[in-house]
Amino acid sequence: RCHKKEFLLKFGRDRRRWLQWLFEARKRHGLSVLNYAVTSNHIHLLVRDNGERDVISNSMQLIAGRTGQEYNLRKQRKGAYWEDRYHATAVETDRHLIKCLVYLDMNMVRAGVVKHPAEWPCSGYNEIQAPRERYAILDYEGLQELLNFRSMDDLANAYRRWIEDAVLTGDRRREGTWTESIAVGSESFVNATKEKLGIKAHGREVIEADGSYALRESSMPYKTILWVENDGLRPQNRYYWNDTVGM
């Protein structure tokens, strides 16, 4: 999230620049990107942990550092660009992964800025629907493997249906499950993650909600945790874009 929830990413050029550094992180460090959503004041990024040491942390350091430096230099601004370092949540690669993918792409629909993810160029939806031959950000092979699809055409068709279902449902609640938890998935997955974390998981609870489990720091109901996040995108603060994406 941007420092003090400021709208430092409200212009298309700044969102595109963040995506260009995401692409650079994939080239330099081999970051496996499954989905992304760049909003006007915060980022959602879904990546695959391939077990290679420091790939994710080095990538995040590159992206966050360069975008902040460039913005401050261009605007002759001083001070922090980001509110804090990134928060990581482990997601089990089953139906929870699908829910997380859809949740990311529905971000600006929930905010009321667009009616469909296809209208927001700075998320992964359009790239899943029309994979790029050059400058691809998403790891298409990784997505196919994790979601058990033989081709990107099959994956794109299924993903389109999942998004349409989410749009028709019209549920605009923000789920703290994805942004505040340490791990999300089945009970066995979450407990295994907690065990691996050892002392780092001390004081964290395994909480069940709607058939899913999450490792969290408190037992506060999910639906009450992130209403604060919605404040920055209330109707009076909405803006509508008219630019086009380009790499």
For the largest beta-sheet, the strand count, sense and barrel status come to: 4 strands, mixed
Give me the secondary-structure category. alpha+beta
Distance between the termini: 23 Å
* Residue runs with pLDDT of under 50 for 5 or more positions: 219-247
Quaternary structure classification = single chain
- Beta content comes to 5-15%
SSE pattern: HEEHEHHHHHHEHEEHH
Averaged pLDDT: 88
Strands of the widest sheet, in order across it, are: 3-4-6-5
Shape: globular
Tell me the Rg in angstroms: 18 Å
Helix content: 40-55%
Number of helical stretches of at least 4 residues: 11
Task: Characterise the protein shown here.
- The protein has about 250 residues and is α+β, with helices and mostly antiparallel strands.
- Helix content is about 45%, strand content about 10%.
- It has 11 helices and 6 strands.
- The protein has helices at about 10-30, 55-75, 95-105, 105-110, 125-130, 140-145, 150-170, 175-180, 185-195, 220-225, 225-230, and strands at about 30-40, 45-50, 90, 185, 205-210, 210-215.
- Strand 5 (about 205-210) and strand 6 (about 210-215) form a beta hairpin.
Outline:
This protein is α+β, with helices and mostly antiparallel strands and 247 residues long.
